[in-house]
Amino acid sequence: MAVVTAAEPSAAQRKADAARKAAEAMEETEKAIGAAREQARAGALQDALTSLLALEKKHRLAGESPCVRALAVAVVRLCHEAGDWPALCEHVVLLSKRRAQVKAAVSDMVKEAMLYVEAQQDMDKKIKLIETLNDVTEGKIYVEIERARLVRQLVRIREGQGKIKEAAEILQTVAVETFGAMHKREKIAFILEQVRLCLDHKDFMRAQILAKKINPNTFARAEKAAKKEAAKKEAGKEGGEAKEGEDEQKAKKKASMGTAGDAVVHEAVEGTPDLEALKVIYYEHMTRYHASNGDYLEMCRCYLAVYETPTVAADPLRWKPLLQSAAWYALLAPNGPEQADLVRRLHGDKGMDELPGHKALLKTFITKEIIHWSALQSTHRAEIEAAPAIFGGAAGVKRLEDLRLRIVEHNVLVVVAYYSHVTLARLAELLSLDAAEAEKHLSEMVVAGRVRAKIDRPAGTVAFGAARDPARTLSKWASSIEKLLHVVDRACQQIEKERSLVSL
């Protein structure tokens, strides 16, 4: 008698059976969630949660991820709808710590709870839920973005309470620069928030360390890409449409590859500024940092970077004050090659044509002529009074003194350009200072390496000379010795020649 064996199901049949079972399980889950919701509305919240937790365990051990995710979210929703915040926090922790818990379930549960954080008006309940979610997400890479956003919400609360230092310390616990799935704009905005809080409580060293995590070239590349895109659009409609189709295909291919490789970059949170706005914020923070160190040259560069931003350059109400500030800080910076280059660059900027007073001021410092402090004050009084942010307050007094010092340095350089020797009395007269102060400023510039001079106090004279390179001096001496030896050798040859002729 022949034995008939059943044929093994094909791959398609197995797949269809798995899909059918998953659909049945999801249908069962939805019915259970509906029944639990009715129980909770009737006042039996605990019974409803118990039934859902038992069903969640069953599906979790069976490896049915969609059902586990739906049940985890349902538990959180029931607690919220019942207004039981202690139960909400308790079950969030409970579900996250269950054995072999599905990562996607924890992620969905955290995202659901975050919606309740934003809607909650009671500050104590809000803080409690945020702290609970922070504990749940700590150390879990798959919810690192959610954790960063929760920390930022907690920081806003602490800052609103006036606890700036505590807010800064909390925000620094999150290192978003290591988050591969976070959008670049959101990363930069997060780091800038860290920098701002450090600046607010005068922690300038840490602010500098955090600011170095942002590469300024990111903003330049974004502006370059925007200009390139605008040029392509203007190139022609047909060519633009063809390129748009190619870009769309590439984007779809990239998106599918990212999903397969589990390396999808999430969209930035709503309200995140674009890169141009982030660039402006970045340089505003760097201006505050450099102002704390009195680094006028870097402050000037920061103002110029903001001034060159396309959106700022299109608005005269924004770029004019920036260009004025850049001009003042360029003049306040100590004399040097970089400072001189910035002053010339600003003087040649076309925007300066609309600021004739500041352009004339820059021209004064470019010209190799003596500047008198009293004359400059009277001539450019309007420009000085129009900059209260620079010359107002206690810091403004110091900056006026620094401006006067820059004038003295400029005058010394003018004297060096026209004199090789000068008496101290004449130098003091040219600088509009007494002899002691003139000698002091000259000595400081010599020590700083800006000029080369020798002061003869008994004679009361100053000798100016160009700086000599030791290597060049040695080379010149060696060349002179070589010429001397060559002359001696030629003389010896002539003497020997004469002796030979005489001996004949």
TrEMBL record:
Domain of life the protein comes from: Eukaryota
Protein name (record): PCI domain-containing protein
Native species: Prasinoderma singulare
Region Disordered: start-end pairs: 1-23, 230-258
GO cellular component: cytoplasm; nucleus; proteasome regulatory particle, lid subcomplex
Record keywords: Proteasome
Family: Belongs to the proteasome subunit p55 family.
Record's keyword annotation contains Ribosomal protein: no
Biased composition annotated in UniProt, kind: Basic and acidic residues: 14-23, 230-243
